């Protein structure tokens, strides 16, 4: 049989297998319907074996699939880091190349200056005037004294977002500004261009754009928060634009620095009166004003470097530059040039803070988790904005938690949904707490804000929890299991010193109290309904299996002496009403102890007392009304079971679960007394 199955398997797995031809041959070779049925059974068996093997392979390789996915994720992260390192290395190489080219350019400029006489500023101004006559709307450009033309040429402007051509422009670079003019479609005499924009050299930064064919020979001008991209005619002209723009910005900075140094007032010693010859004049110390050296290249380029760092999202580099400047000026006198430099830097600091605040806004992507905010938070703290960083960090995490809860799919099984909800919320809270402790380790004043935020987040969790567990009218057993799961997850937060158990309990106490009272009312109504139909007859369970099952249930409830109430065959010497009442009372106690915390002590105790009182009153009423001696004896036997067996077990389990005795239940049992167990006995309830 096995050989036949193997041959059939090989035939079906063959690449040249033809199903139509196979069925035709099978029909010709079959003797009747029985052969076809047997063959069909073989194919079905083969299909079942194949499906079983496929399922085993899936289970066998499932863990490998998960591990492979993790490895791919790790590899992706390493590749991203490697790409970042290569980008940094490339930028360093480009800066070195630019520095070498700048050195060669300076030497070439010196040689050209020695070989050819330099054009005077008057000649440059005349050239600028001649060119500006061709530009419409810029008559006031030449009103600034000392302004002259450095370089000009045609460029093509591209859209920053989609890299599409916008327009053709002509750029005029002057010694203190850059003029952008657009071409006129219809020339009017000598006028060929129209004024578009004028930028001060200190207000923008120039960035080289990497060639990406067909987009090449481009450079970008950054005016935070805007930017413009221009394309030169070829790479040589692009290089000239970049070099001349850089050189012109440096020349302007040097000229302004020298002008400020010349404007510093100096008190000549020779103008002071001779103190030695005038006895009525007291000697005054000569005030020597210390001049801060701001001629260093990195200080001159600091505002522009900050603009570039902000535009390129190099927040760490920007803050490093600010720290370097602060360290340099720490012990220096505050002179007017220093104030001017600080005013320029402060404007960049405000821009940097605005960008970092935007990075932490809840509107940004929330997929990265708490670690995704670390970069912006750390830089805000370094800038002295720890309070703002704390506020934005917590707002960001609150939005992330709320989004995760909102996206959680509501399953049909409530307990399954609560498991997922607790896993998402408490895991997010734990990660947020660890990240907060790492980011704000040196800012202990922010921890109170985190505690307040944790309580707010817990309230958001309880709202979602109560809506699914209590508002949907789940059973008390389901609610108890759900609350137990939430407590277990909440206790995990104590690993990091965060205890929110009391907060969770205080937020849930109202809903749990309502659930206990609602379930108590259900048990009381069901007990009263059974009492109204009570016939005081012994239970007949019909089968030994049913009797064993009832004994097992009573043992699980803590009633080990239940066997003394069982009779011959399948009889139980108790009424159906008393047995059902015992089951419901024990189940209510078990679920109530799972939900228990100190604020619910009296609620649970009073609920148990009211339920027990219903059964006691029914037994008392039946004893007083029953005239049949046999039934009266049977009622007393049920009463004995309640008082001597059930109530002591209730008191013991309540004390074990709560930690203190149930005085009200003891008083209830002691206040009800049984008199001689005989047909003439009666029972009263106080």
UniProtKB/TrEMBL annotation:
Its cellular-component GO annotations read: exocyst; growth cone; perinuclear region of cytoplasm
Q: Which family does it belong to?
A: Belongs to the EXO84 family.
Organism listed in the record: Polypterus senegalus (Senegal bichir)
Q: What does this protein do?
A: Component of the exocyst complex involved in the docking of exocytic vesicles with fusion sites on the plasma membrane.
Q: What name has this protein been given in UniProt? A: Exocyst complex component 8
**InterPro entries this protein is in?**
Cullin_repeat-like_dom_sf (IPR016159), Exo84 (IPR033961), Exo84_C (IPR032403), Exo84_C_1 (IPR042561), Exo84_C_2 (IPR042560), PH-like_dom_sf (IPR011993), PH_domain (IPR001849)
The gene designation is Exoc8
Q: Which residue numbers delimit the PH domain?
A: 148-250
Gene Ontology annotations of biological process type: exocytosis; Golgi to plasma membrane transport; protein transport
Question: Mind telling me which Pfam families this protein's record contains?
Answer: Exo84_C (PF16528), VPS51_Exo84_N (PF08700)
List where in the cell it is found: Cell projection, Growth cone; Cytoplasm, Perinuclear region
Q: Which domain of life is it from?
A: Eukaryota
Q: Where is this region: Disordered?
A: 254-279
Q: What is its main location?
A: other
Instruction: Cite the entry's keywords alphabetically.
Output: Cell projection, Cytoplasm, Exocytosis, Protein transport, Transport
Q: Where is the composition biased (Basic and acidic residues)?
A: 254-274
């Amino acid at each position: 049989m096995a050989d036949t199955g193997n041959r059939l398997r090989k035939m079906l797995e063959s690449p040249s297998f033809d199903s139509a031809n196979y069925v035709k041959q099978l029909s010709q070779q079959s003797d009747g319907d029985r052969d076809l049925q047997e063959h069909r059974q073989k194919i079905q068996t083969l299909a079942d074996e194949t499906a079983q093997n496929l399922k085993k392979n899936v289970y066998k390789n499932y863990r490998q699939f998960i591990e492979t996915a993790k490895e791919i994720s790790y590899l992706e992260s390493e590749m991203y880091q490697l790409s970042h390192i290569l980008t940094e290395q490339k930028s360093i190489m480009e800066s070195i190349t630019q520095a070498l080219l700048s050195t060669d350019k300076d030497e070439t400029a010196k040689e050209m200056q020695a070989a050819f006489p330099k054009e005077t500023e008057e000649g440059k101004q005349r050239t600028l005037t001649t060119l500006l006559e061709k530009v419409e709307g810029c008559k006031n450009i030449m009103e600034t004294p000392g302004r002259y033309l450095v370089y000009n040429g045609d460029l093509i402007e591209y859209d920053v977002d989609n890299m599409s051509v916008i327009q053709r422009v002509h750029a005029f670079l002057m010694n203190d500004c850059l003029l952008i003019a657009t071409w006129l479609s219809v020339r009017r005499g000598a006028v060929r261009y129209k004024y578009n924009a004028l930028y001060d050299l200190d207000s923008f930064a120039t960035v080289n754009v990497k060639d990406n064919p067909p987009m090449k020979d481009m450079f970008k001008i950054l005016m935070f928060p805007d930017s413009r991209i221009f394309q030169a005619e070829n790479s040589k002209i692009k290089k000239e634009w970049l070099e001349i723009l850089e050189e012109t910005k440096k020349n302007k900075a040097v000229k302004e620095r020298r002008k400020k140094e010349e404007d510093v007032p100096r008190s000549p010693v020779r103008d002071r009166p001779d103190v030695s010859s005038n006895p009525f004049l007291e000697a005054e110390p000569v005030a020597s004003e210390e001049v801060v050296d701001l001629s260093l290249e990195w200080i001159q380029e600091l505002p522009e470097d900050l603009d570039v760092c902000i535009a390129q999202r190099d927040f760490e580099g920007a803050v490093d530059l600010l720290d370097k400047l602060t360290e340099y000026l720490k012990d220096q006198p505050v002179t007017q040039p220093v104030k001017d430099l600080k005013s320029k830097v402060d404007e960049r600091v405000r821009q940097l803070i605005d960008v970092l605040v935007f990075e932490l806004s809840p509107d940004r992507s929330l997929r990265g988790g708490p670690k995704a905010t670390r970069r912006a938070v750390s830089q805000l703290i370094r800038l002295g904005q720890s309070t703002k960083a704390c506020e934005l960090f917590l707002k960001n995490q609150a939005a992330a938690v709320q989004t995760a809860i909102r996206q959680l799919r509501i399953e049909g099984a409530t307990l399954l949904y609560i498991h997922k909800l607790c896993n998402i919320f408490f895991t997010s809270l734990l990660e947020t707490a660890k990240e907060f402790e790492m980011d704000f380790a040196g800012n202990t004043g922010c921890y109170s804000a985190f505690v307040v935020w944790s309580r707010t987040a817990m309230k958001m969790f309880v709202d979602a929890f109560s809506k699914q567990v209590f508002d949907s009218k789940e059973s008390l057993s389901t609610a108890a299991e759900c609350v137990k799961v939430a407590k277990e997850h909440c206790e995990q937060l104590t690993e990091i010193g965060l205890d929110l158990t009391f907060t969770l309990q205080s937020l849930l106490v109202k809903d749990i109290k309502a659930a206990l009272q609602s379930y108590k009312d259900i048990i009381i109504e069901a007990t009263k309904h059974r009492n109204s139909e009570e016939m005081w007859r012994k239970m007949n369970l019909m089968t030994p299996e049913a009797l064993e099952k009832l004994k097992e249930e009573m043992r699980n409830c803590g009633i080990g002496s239940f066997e003394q109430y069982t009779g011959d065959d399948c009889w139980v010497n108790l009424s159906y009403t008393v047995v059902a009442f015992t089951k419901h009372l024990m189940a209510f106690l078990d679920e109530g102890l799972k939900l228990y915390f100190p604020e619910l002590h009296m609620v649970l105790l009073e609920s148990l007392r009211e339920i027990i009182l219903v059964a006691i009153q029914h037994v008392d009423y039946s004893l007083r009304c029953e005239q049949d001696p046999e039934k009266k004896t049977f009622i007393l036997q049920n009463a004995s079971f309640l008082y001597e067996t059930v109530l002591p077990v209730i008191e013991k389990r309540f004390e074990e679960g709560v930690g203190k005795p149930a005085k009200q239940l003891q008083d209830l049992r002691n206040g009800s007394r049984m008199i001689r167990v005989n047909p003439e006995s009666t029972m009263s309830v106080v």
